[in-house]
Amino acid sequence: MLIGAILIGRTVFSSTDGSGGEVDVPDLIGSTMEQAQGRADNAEVKLAVGSKEPCANQEKGKICSQSPSPSEKMETGETVTAVVSTGAPKIEVPDVLEKSEDSARKALEDKGFTVNVKTAESEKTVDTVISQDPEGGSKVEKDTEVTITVAKEATVPMPDVRTRSYDAAVAQLNGLGFTNVSKQDVDSEEAAGTVIEQTGSERAVQGRPDRPEGLQGARLSPSSPSRSPSRPTSSVSGSSRRRQRSKEWASWSRSRPTRPTSRTPW
Fold first, then answer.
1. Which domains does the chain have, with CATH numbers?
2. pLDDT given at position 201
């Protein structure tokens, strides 16, 4: 009886001592290695890293799987093997160059990317993608932001042509793509044909004849060179024309020679 009691006592003492006893497998998923090590120590089990792999559900550096799983039992002193995440799996970025903004956005968002759109002046087709970052074909994590640059019409600043002659002003503007220039003649103390004011946007689309820019010039005198048929016609008021004709008639009358009258003697 004494021997049996001693043996039973030793068995009970061994199980409560913790050596060789069963414990619940600690749940380490989602923990950093530092956090996981603390939980393993509390459960009196060991922790080891089995591998490092991409993990869609866990950030880089966190445990995304383990063996044995948390629902199992294990002996104290045994080892839990963890798989540590290297980040989300990388996927290929679609090449969206030369696509329209809407098409490019859809292609990228369908792959799980976020899209940032910028615009830049370009001679390429308006509203098409002229550059992207990251480049098409590269591999990045899902939810990465992809920046696309979309072409907009190239513009050119409209120069100040005041104090220039009308012909010189038109030539300069035409050379910069302002191909639809209108003119309005007004009375001014400046020399005839001199541009005194100009209207229009500060920047104009280059090469777009449907975007007119206006010039307001001094009234051209009759002695000015005749205008080319392609140049916009001047608008001079009726009273101005009448005043000019009166001046011309008076000048002609004064310059006309006087014919002497002959008197017949009685």
1. 20-85 (3.30.10.20), 90-153 (3.30.10.20), 157-236 (3.30.10.20)
2. 62
